Amino acid sequence: MASSHAAAAPFLLVLLLQLCSSGLALPSKFIDQTCPPERLPAVALLSNGGPFLCNPPAPRVPVAVFPHDVDPVQFALNLEYTEAEFFLHGAYGAGLDEAAPGLARGGPPPVGARKANLDEETRRVVSEFALQEVGHLRVIQQTVGGFPRPLLNLSADNFARVMDNAFGYRLNPPFDPYTNSLNFLLACYVIPYLGINGYVGTNPIIDGYKTKELVAGLLGVEAGQDAAFRTLLFRRRGEAVPPYNVTVAEFTDRVSALRNRLGRCGVKDEGLTVPRELGAEGAICTNVLSADRDSLSYSRTPAELLRILYLTGDEHVPGGFYPDGANGKIARSFLGKPRGANESPKN
Predict the structure, then answer these.
(1) Is the pLDDT score of 306 beyond 70?
(2) Which end of the chain is less crowded, N or C, counting CB atoms within 10 A of the terminal residue's CB?
(3) What does the alpha-carbon distance between residue 194 and residue 260 come to, in Å, rounded to a whole number?
C-alpha cells in the first residue's frame, strides 16, 4: 500500500500544480467551506507513477490561432460576461469586480444585479456555473485577447420586459428573477442557450487548432449548463408559476417563441414540450434538449444573437441586456462605433 501511495505522489504533485497555475485566487466568499476535507483523489491512486501517455495527435494545420479567428471568438465574451455576472450575483451577491476584477478589463459594473433568494440545490448549481464562467472569460482572453465588459442590464425590470414581450402583455406583478429559485431558473432559461447557438455558429468559421479546441470545450460546458437548467425546469413543467397561473412549460415556450421572433431566422428555439412531429424523430413531445430534426444543436450568427439580446430585433439598435451595445469588433461594427474604450484586440 505504501508503494502505491508513493507511486501516486508524482501524479498528485503535477495535478496540484496544474490546478494552482490554471486559475485565479478567488476571495474567500467564493470558496465553498462545506466541501469535505481534501484527500488523495481516487484517480491519483490509479497512477503507476510512469510517464503520461496522453499526448494529442499533431494538428493538421499547425497554426494555433488564425487572425480571422479572433473576432468571432472574442464576440462570445459578451455572453460570457452576461452569464458570469448574472450567476455570480445570483449565487453570491457579488460579481466579477470581487471575484476576478482583472477579467472585467475596466468595463462598467452591471446594472440591477443582486443576490437571489435561492434554495440550497439551486444555489449550488448556480454557484458552480458562475465559477465556470470565470474560467471561460479567462481562457478566452488568454487565447484571443479581450475587451472591456460591456454595460449589462441585469435588473429585474429588464427581465420583466423580456417576459412581458414573450407573453404579449404585462405580467402582474412584474416578473422578478431574484424573488425565488423557480423565477431564477426561468431567467437562466433566457440567456445561456444563446451561448450554445453562438458556439455552434462559430465553429465552422475558425481554423486555428487552439481556437477550435477552445470553442469545442466552451460549447461542451455551455450545453451542459443549459441541459441542467432545462432538466430542473422539466421536473416542474406542469407546475404553475405563482402568481401568474401559467405553467413552467408555457413560460419556456413563450421565451423560445420570442427568441425566434427577434432572431428573424426561423425556428431555432423550442420550449420544454413540443408537438410530437417536432420532437426527436417525430415520435415524442418531450423536449429537454432543444435540437433540430436531426437532433443537432441550432446555430445562430452574431447578428441574430444581438437582435435577441438587445430585445429590438435589430442588431443595429442596442437595448435589452446591453443598453450601450455589446463590445468587440463584430458587435461595434453594427453600431458604426469603435471596439470600445480601453479595448485591445489582443491580450
Answers:
(1) yes
(2) N
(3) 11
For residue 114, list its beta bridge partners: none
Question: pLDDT digits over 34-87, tens only?
Answer: 888 777 666 556 555 666 778 888 888 899 999 999 999 999 999 999 999 999
186 touches 251 (CB < 8 A): yes
Helix runs in the chain, H state only = 2-22, 42-45, 67-92, 96-99, 120-144, 156-167, 181-190, 192-202, 209-234, 248-263, 302-309, 329-335
For 106, residues 6+ apart whose C-beta sits below 8 A from its C-beta are: 148, 149, 341, 342
Q: Report pLDDT digits (tens) over 204-214.
A: 999 999 999 99
Classify 201 as helix, strand or coil. helix
Question: What cell was used for 6?
Answer: 508513493
Overall size of the chain counted in residues: 347
Q: Cα–Cα distance between 158 and 112 in angstroms, integer? A: 9
What integer best gives the mean pLDDT of the chain?
90
pTM of the full structure? 0.88
Cell of 223: 450545453
CB 189 within 8 A of CB 233: yes
- What is the phi/psi pair of residue 116, to 5°? -95, 155
